[in-house]
Amino acid sequence: MNNVDSPLIFELSREGQKGYSLPKCDVPELAMEKMIGSANLRAQDAALPEVSENEIVRHYIRLSTMNHHIDKAIYPLGSCTMKYNPKVNEKISAFPGWTELHPFQPARTAQGALHLMHDLARMLAEIAGMEEVTLQPTSGAQGEFTGIQLAKAHFKHIGEKRVNVLLPDSAHGTNPASVAMSGYKPVQIKSSDQGILDPAVLEKTLDESYALVMLTNPNTLGLFEREIKRVCEIAHGKGALVYMDGANLNALMGIARPGDMGFDILHINLHKTFSTPHGGGGPGGGAVGVKKLLAPYLPLPVVCKDEKQYYFDYDRPLSIGRLHTFYGNFGMMVRAYTYILMHGATGLREVSEAAIINANYLKEKLRKRYKLAYDYVCQHEFVLSGDIQKKLGVKTSDIAKRLLDFGVHAPTTYFPLIVSEALMIEPTETESKRSLDEFVRIMLQIADEAETNPDIVKNAPQNTPVARLDEALAARELNVSYQG
Ligand SMILES: *Cc1c(COP(=O)(O)O)cnc(C)c1O
Fold first, then answer.
1. Cβ-count burial of 56 within 10 angstroms (0-12 exposed, 13-18 middle, 19+ buried)?
2. Ligand 1: which of 172, 248, 274 to mutate, most ligand atoms within 8 Å of CB?
3. What pLDDT band is residue 325 in, cutting at 50, 70 and 90?
4. Are 259 and 124 in contact (CB under 8 A)?
5. Could you tell me the CA-to-CA distances from 251 to 6, 339, 416, 420, 427 in Å, in that order?
6. Pocket-testing residue among 75, 77, 79, ligand 1, by greatest number of atoms within 8 A of Cβ
7. 228 pLDDT exceeds 60?
8. Does the C-beta of 146 come closer than 6 Å to ligand 1?
9. How many helices (DSSP H) and strands (DSSP E) are in the chain?
C-alpha cells in the first residue's frame, strides 16, 4: 500500500507489541515513583504506538519512498541546489566525539569542535574573499537578517540615518522580507532586458537614504552580474554597503570571489553549496562573511584562537549580540567542513565548473522546445518560460506535475517573478550525463504531449501517492493531531 491510505503508525499499533527485546534485568528494580516522585509521573501512560521491529522499519521505509528526495532521483529545483549529499558527511558528523558534546561544556574541553568551527570560518572566508565569518545563522534567510543587522549597527555607530535598501525585481522573496524585518524599507529596481542590474538605472535611483544594495550573484536568472564592479563603486560612492545573497555560490567557488567584486557582506548557504542535507525546512547553515569594517558587529561569541587554545570571544562591545542560544547547527558545520576537505581547492573549482557545464548542457537541449527566458551563457541554473505550452492550454504547473509521473522532482516554478510561466532549472554538478539526458528525454516527451495529448499533462500526476493537492489548505488549516 503505497498511497495516502496506508495506515498511520497509530493504526498499526496493537497492545503489547514491542519493537525491542531487552535481557532480563540483573540489578534490583526500583519503582519510578521512588526515583522521581509520584507527583512527576503521568496519571495515564502516554498513548504511544506499540509495533514490532519489522513493522516500524517497513512503515518508515514506505513513507520515505512516498516523497521525492535526492537519493531517489534528480532534483532540479532551481535556486535550491539540491545536490547529492555525500554519505561520508553523515558518517563523520555522527562521530561520538561530536554528538556527545554538550553546548554548556567549558571551551577547553571542546577544543576539537572549536577548532573545526574556527577553520571552517577561515575556509569560507577564503572562498568568498571576506575577512571574518560567523557560522551562527541557521538558514539563508537568517543569514540575510544577520547581515542587514550588521550594516544597521555600522550606520548607527557612525551616526548615519539611512532608511532604504535597494533590491532588483529578480530577488528571492526572503530578501525583501529580511529587509522589512530589519526595519528598512525595501525598494525594488527593474532588471535590464539582459536580466542584470543596469548601473545607469542604479545611479539614478541611489542616494544617501540607502543603507544597502542587496544583490544575488549569479542572480536568480542564473546570470552573472557583469557590471558588479561598477555597481559596487556607485553604491560605495553614496556611502552605502553592498550585500550579496550568496545562495548561488555553487557557481563561483574557486573561480571568482564576492569580496574581490566589492561586496561588503554576504551569506552562504551551507545546505546548498556545501552539500548539507536540506528540504522540508530542516536544519541549515547560513554563514555570514564580512569585510573588516563590519567585523566588530558580528554576533557573539566569535570563535578565536590564541597561542594556546581556541576560545569563545565575548569581548566585542559593538556586537549585535547573540542570534540564538548556542552556535548554530553544529552538525551542518561538520558536514560542510568534511565536504570542503574532501574536495580541496581544485575540487571545489571543479564542482562549480561542472555545475555550470551541466546547466548549459540542459539549456541547449531544452531550448529546442521551450522558450528560453534570457539567451545568455548561464551559470549553475537557467530559466525557461512555459509560454509556448501555455498557448496550447498547458500551464507550467501542469508540466511540473507531469514530471512527477516520471519520478523526477519538478524545477522551481513561477519564480523569478519577472519571467512568465517560469521553470527554473538547476541540475547541480552531481548529476551524470546519463541522468541529464534522461531528464531531457522526459521534458521533450512532455513538450510533445502538450501538442498531441494535452489532457495527460493537465491531469497529471497519476503515478504519485497523492494527485493534486490544495497547496494552500494545509497552511491555512493546519491539523497535525491524530484523532484515534
Ligand atoms: C535558498 C535561497 C535563499 C534562502 O535560504 P534559506 O536557507 O532557504 O532561508 C535566499 N536567496 C536565494 C537566492 C536562495 O536561493
1. middle
2. 172
3. confident
4. no
5. 42, 16, 18, 25, 12
6. 79
7. yes
8. no
9. 18, 13
Residue closest via CA to ligand 1's atom 3 equals 140
Give distance in angstroms: CA of 430 to centre of ligand 1: 20
* CATH number, domain 346-476, options 3.90.1150.10, 3.30.70.3270, 3.40.50.880, 3.10.620.30: 3.90.1150.10
| Grid-cell match 577547553, residue found | 108
Q: Exposure pattern of 441-469 as b/e (b: 16+ CB <10 Å)?
A: ebbeebbebbeeeeebbbebbeebbeeee
Q: How far is the CA of 190 from the centre of ligand 1 (A)?
A: 20
Report pTM. 0.92
In DSSP terms, 168 is beta-bridged to: 189
C-alpha grid cell, residue 44: 495515564
Q: Which contiguous run of DSSP H or E holds residue 350?
A: helix 330-366
Query: Does any ligand 1 atom lie closer than 6 A to the CB of residue 172?
Result: yes
Cβ neighbours for 290, distance < 8 A, ≥ 6 positions apart: 130, 131, 132, 133, 147, 150, 264, 265, 297, 298
Determine the Cα–Cα distance for residues 403 and 389; give it in Å rounded to an integer. 14
Please state the domain extents for the chain. 9-66, 88-342, 346-476
Give Cβ neighbours of residue 280 (< 8 Å, ≥ 6 apart): none
Q: 3-state class of 139 per DSSP?
A: coil
* 431 C-beta closer than 6 A to ligand 1: no
| Ligand 1 pocket, mutate which of 225, 245, 267 (most atoms under 8 A from CB) | 245
Rounded distance between C-alpha atoms, residue 350 and residue 59, angstroms: 40
Pick the most confident of 24-33, 61-70, 234-243.
Answer: 234-243
Q: Residue-wise over 271-280: b if at least 16 C-beta within 10 A, else e?
A: bbbbbbbbee
Q: Which of 138, 143, 201 is nearest to 167 (CA)?
A: 201
> Tell me: the pLDDT tens digits for 171-197?
999 999 999 999 999 999 999 999 999
Predicted local distance difference test score (pLDDT) of residue 6: 81
Count of beta carbons in the 10 Å neighbourhood of residue 260:
11
Given this chain, do its domains 88-342 and 346-476 carry the same CATH topology?
no
Exposure of 202 in the CB half-sphere (CA atoms within 13 A): 30
Asked if pLDDT for residue 66 goes beyond 70, the answer is yes
| Grid cell of 243 as nine digits | 550585500
Contact criterion met (CB below 8 Å) for 205 and 187 = yes
- Does domain 88-342 fall under CATH 3.40.640.10? My reply is yes
What would the pLDDT profile of 113-165 be if each residue is shown by its tens digit? 999 999 999 999 999 999 999 999 999 999 999 999 999 999 999 999 999 99
